Fold this protein.
Amino acid sequence: MSKKIKYSYNQKKITCYSFEIIKSVIFVFAIVSIIFTFFIRDANVVGNSMYETLHDNDKVFLTSFNYTPKSGDIVAINAENMIEKRIIKRVIATEGQTLDIDYATGKVYDGVMLEEDYISSFTKKPENEYKFPYVIPENYIFVMGDNRGISLDSRDANIGLVPCDDVIGKAQFVFYPFDRIKYLY
């Protein structure tokens, strides 16, 4: 009789322990789901328009909660209404800034010449360009890729100015491939 009671007690202990593990796993899953829904997202880099900062097929973490774009930030943009895809570009100018691009020298100005040590190719003039200088209106940003020779970005009227509501989030960190893991400033 005592064996049977001891067995039942151990069985109850295992059952309670199993329920505690299941509850913990569900709780952790819920917290991670909330974090990845509202605070952190991931995005895939497609193409080489952000080369050398980002490479084709890099995977990045984005932060989006209470984010306001700032000049120099790398952002993911929902450009589906413009070119039917998402893009990752660098914010060059925000609302109220006067932007000018000197295509003869490849220099970009927002009142003063921008220090752009991240660009990997000469800033070329697109066929369908905006006319500069241009004051960025409220709730819009102007974005460009770091690889200015091939980047389809705000210089082209097909993309143009990006509404701040179309910004998905700021790229913070490359997490894959593992040999390219780095923080994005």
The two ends are 69 Å apart (CA to CA).
